[in-house]
Amino acid sequence: MLKIVSFVLLAGWTNAMINCPPDYCMWRACPAISNGNCNGVVRPKGGVCGCCDVCITQLAEGDNCRAMMMLGVPADSECASDLTCDIETFTCKRSVQKRQAGSCSAKLAEVEAKYAAANGMLRGLERPLCEANGDFKGMQYQGSQAFCVAPNGSEISGFMVNRWEAADMDCQCARDQYAYQKTGLIGRMFSCDRFGNYAPTGCTGSVCFCQDRSGKPIGDTRANMGQLDALNC
């Protein structure tokens, strides 16, 4: 029990440590990180307060992944593709599904039952974020990370950021793109940012425009794909 309490207290303490003043990045010297010198995955602006690019080490099956579960601390490692961090052993394990799909309301009830049985003291167990209709919300948390999911909870790859960066993360673009790909159709272009949100500009063919948070064009101004700066979105 002492071990569990210590983990919870440490998670809360590290979460409180993250404080990003508006000019914080001005005084940060960022190391030169590229695919050439990173023995892992380069995550743009993935460091503290989003100032610097970071190299994320890919952990193998059986590796310790405790650092991934520390809230408020930018992760410098993650379980490699098709592996997840087991919340009981804090090791990377292979799973049948990347994230379990199903009803969010049912998953939430399951988590709440586990919390109740353990008097609220469980390591790394996240309550899923649910819509009123029982579907999963677009953005979910796991440890120090936030990621995009489909309405059934299936993870949408390519959209994972530090937990403390996710305040404005809605994953609408990631979801729309995921649903379109599932139809088997091709041809439609999606302009998503790294949070899974719609980027300020979108394009249809070679014609680009400003777009809102749902991907709909704003205004009548159009520009060629090579002249996006002219849109001033």
TrEMBL record:
Pfam families: Thyroglobulin_1
Residues in coiled coil: none
Gene3D superfamilies listed in its UniProt record: Thyroglobulin type-1 (4.10.800.10)
Descriptive protein name: Thyroglobulin type-1 domain-containing protein
Keyword Disulfide bond belongs to the record: yes
Domain Thyroglobulin type-1, first and last residues per copy: 168-233
Species of provenance: Dreissena polymorpha (Zebra mussel)
UniProt xrefs under InterPro entries: Thyroglobulin_1 (IPR000716), Thyroglobulin_1_sf (IPR036857)
Signal peptide, first to last residue: 1-16
PROSITE patterns reported for this sequence: THYROGLOBULIN_1_2
The organism's place on the tree of life at top rank: Eukaryota
Keyword Heme part of the UniProt annotation: no
Key words of the record: Disulfide bond, Signal
